[in-house]
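[job 4471] stage=fold_predict status=RUNNING
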Amino acid sequence: MEKMTQKPKRVLVQGNFDVLHPGHIRLLNFARDCGDELIVAINTDSAMTVKSRVKEKHRLEIVQSLECVNEAFLTDQPPEQVVQQHRPAIVVKGKEFETRHNAELSALQEYGGKLVFGSGEFETNADHYIRRTSPVGRNFDYQEAKLFAQRHGVTQGDLLSLFSSMRALRVLVIGEVIVDEYVQGTAVGLSQEDPTIVMTPNRKDKFLGGAAITAGHIKALGAKAVTLASVLGEDNTAFYATQNISDYQVEPLFFTDPSRPTPLKTRYRAGNKTLLRVNQVRQHKIARELQEQIYSAIEKKLDTTDLLVFSDFNYGVLPQPLVERLSAACQQRNIRMVADSQTSSQVGDISRYCGMDLLTPTEREVRVALNNTDDGLVILAQKLIEKTQSQNLVITLAEEGILVHKPDLPVQKWENDRLPALNPNAVDPAGAGDCLLAASSLALVAGANIWQACYLGSLAAACQVASLGNTPLSSSILEKAVKDSFS
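[job 4471] inference complete, writing structure tokens
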């Protein structure tokens, strides 16, 4: 008797795939796991209802290069006709479509097909599902950056001209000063008494981090004057911060709260790996009386301020009433504002920063703020913009780079693009976000559009992670990186 072979279960995904970003990869990988073969229908240029900077041929080639995709093709047909033609067992759409009308459903029901909604797991590293691999070398990878620059008309001359405008800017940064301590040692092995790694310390280094390094980057990148407002404890860490802030050429506006230690984060490292991090912090909010002192001191400086940076590490220095008062004062004076609110070992809420010119959260920080684990990256970005009414959003994706979301709020349209990480050989990724925020913010206030600002910010982050420790990035190094990226 001849053995029957089961027909492979085919899964269909249809979309524009304008600029491929990690959200697309996660969706496609999720779809691939729903069946045996994944086919992807890519809308042609004529079928797209939104403007695309990437032509259909290139969009097709990129999707075809993905390991999880068995077949990809261009189509100008609506979804229900594609379903009727290919008769997939399953059609997968993003979670955000679950509450909308889906034209494919009736076509699927005719033969028993299923419609599945899901956006994949956001913890997944999307690069694992791409066939193409780049050899690890010593130099930055500018290939994708050049394509990004071409799509958005970013030129070397425009970027270099920003540096002179940045030198006239006066910036005020407010947030937690953190002292980063690195204990470098040699890993000896496992303890015989318990499963603990044993290391022998060889060297100890300290750096000013948190809002201090953000201010330091801004000053080193060329700002005319930078003031740093923060709250310190009464301890040796506070003494270190006070004594060393002058190295950054930043004007300190420090206040004392004896109820809280100055944040100290110690990293124990062997080689280029961190074995353990110990945080000495408290997270209670500063008292109302101290909030009033801070606001009064900052208000006196606002008339000579071009940019206010909220560098929030969520250790209590920026309670909501203080954030709202400072934001209102800046809006009255037409002062530009940007914000970053970190959610790592602590809990933060980037969505409480409204009316900003730029927000730079991680993907996890966006999901925590919106209490949303289901939607894809673009829908997440759209929802955060709607909630905060901010002008620009950059979602940082660690080694996967950044997703840039540029909204057009009056007409409810937006544009997205992805810029991959430009340095595949990061030595210490801890300061990438701070450097990205500093460079991008300065560029925006100096007259750049969001694409130019993010190009410059990504270059700055790539330079920063090339060395151990969070030290201010100089404008000369960044200018050289700009020239190298166009060579």
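[job 4471] summary: Residues 143-485 form a domain with the UDP-N-acetylmuramoyl-L-alanine:D-glutamate ligase fold (CATH 3.40.1190.20).
[job 4471] exit 0
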